[in-house]
Amino acid sequence: MTISDARATQLARLGFAARGLVYLLVGWFAVDAAMRGGTIADNQGAIGSLADEKLGVVILAIVAAGLLGYAIWRLTEAIADPERIMQDAKGAVKRIGHVVSGVAHLILAWTAARLALHPATGSGGRSPGDDSARDWTAWLLSVPLGRFLVAAVAIGILAAALMQAQKAWKGNFIRDLHNDSSLPSYVCTMGRLGYGARAVVFAIVAGFFAVAAWQSHATEAGGMADALAMLQDQPGGKWLLAATGIGLGLFGVYSFIEARFRRVSVRIPG
User: Fold this and answer.
1) What is the number of H-type helices and E-type strands within the chain?
2) How many structural domains is the chain composed of?
3) 269 domain residue, yes or no
4) CB burial class (10 A; 0-12, 13-18, 19+) of residue 120?
5) 3-state class of 262 per DSSP?
6) Is-above-0.90 flag for pTM?
7) What are 207-252's pLDDT values in tens digits?
8) CB 3.0 to 4.6 Å from 14: which of 66, 188, 211, 212, for a disulfide?
9) Pair 241, 181: CB distance under 8 Å
10) Residue 267 covered by a domain
11) In which domain, by residue range, is 248 found?
């Protein structure tokens, strides 16, 4: 049995909404940590926090389905190249980015599905993604040319950060929405602030992996929550963390808008 193109497209739209919910939670945890000393959470930690909520199992199941649909969309974009972007090196990099995004959302979908089936294992707002980053880095460092592989990961994440920054600067992502010219200007502003916040977080994570490669120590690697914690530790860190959290939350809101207005068409190869 194969999933239809139309159903996959609907799941991809649900995926934007699921991503929006996750980023809203990440942003909330960051602002709460800045203002009230709460716990910082990454994407997986934010998903885990849903397990203890009323109807948490149902919400997690919906989030898992949506993130799976989003992952399928990204991976089919990379494999089938429906936008015909594989014309030059820039297009090749974009397709690689689609693969990375697809795999990342598959992991998040698996996390949500596992918690829906076993809600007692919820993270309670902790950040298992940071531990996973260090575990994978340790494994990479144990293989031949491991330091170069970790350095390659750092370069890839830095490239992603630059792409996010470019979107924030140019605001051309708004063209991916239906009737983009008729949408209020604040929609683009929210997206730009959201992409800017992601660029900051990705750049810090890239720095973690660069240091891990340079020192050949997996403990130097880290993920989103570690990046947010680093911001908090800087002079004026309370406000840096709060501002970044607000930006990530706005990215979540923009993701909800994408769920409604994004041009999405999934074509399953076969």
Assistant:
1) 9, 0
2) 1
3) no
4) exposed
5) strand
6) no
7) 999 999 999 999 999 899 999 999 999 999 999 999 999 999 999 9
8) 66
9) no
10) no
11) 5-261
